[in-house]
Amino acid sequence: MARLGDGLQQFLQSLGEQGAQAAKSRRVAEVHVRWRMATEAVYGPSAPLILDHTNAVYIMRPDKANDPAAARVPQGKTLLVVYCDDAMVRSDLDARQEMLKMHLNRQGEHVEAFSIKPARFDMKARHPFREDAQRATAAFSRSAAKPLIDHDAAERLRQQAQTVENKRLRESILNALDASEQPPTSKNGKSAL
């Protein structure tokens, strides 16, 4: 059975130059989606930070890459090149590169080598994932502002806590209930997140 991607590729090639540009755009979007999915799988709720500092992602054949890591890539495998504008993010990506490669392999992208480079010059202005990261951060901050427990549930638990005989335990439970009804804050009054 023929794959849908192969049929789409043939169709785009039949369009000539416009098809070549469309195929290139499709591949860029595909790489971005795969990188986002792998990053979210590895980093969980911290993924927006990593994506925000990712300036470019390339998955390429070693013969097309101008990178020393390309020499280690066997035939049929690809090289992943990631440009980041933050040294801490580059360091963390380096530490978790095997996990990222594993998730990319699960998506059908057989990455053999991983090259992490600092973003320079006009590359620093590129942020292909920034809008997604800002949306995720805004959604997280909206959900973080909610109390941990609603008022009705806390009231029911307070009534049950009154039946606890040990005074110290009862006071601890009541203090915990009071704290759970408040949005989390730090000592200076700002959000703890």
Automatic annotation (TrEMBL):
**Which keywords accompany this UniProt record?**
Transferase
GO MF, one term, reads: transferase activity
For this entry, the protein name equals Phosphoadenosine phosphosulfate sulfotransferase
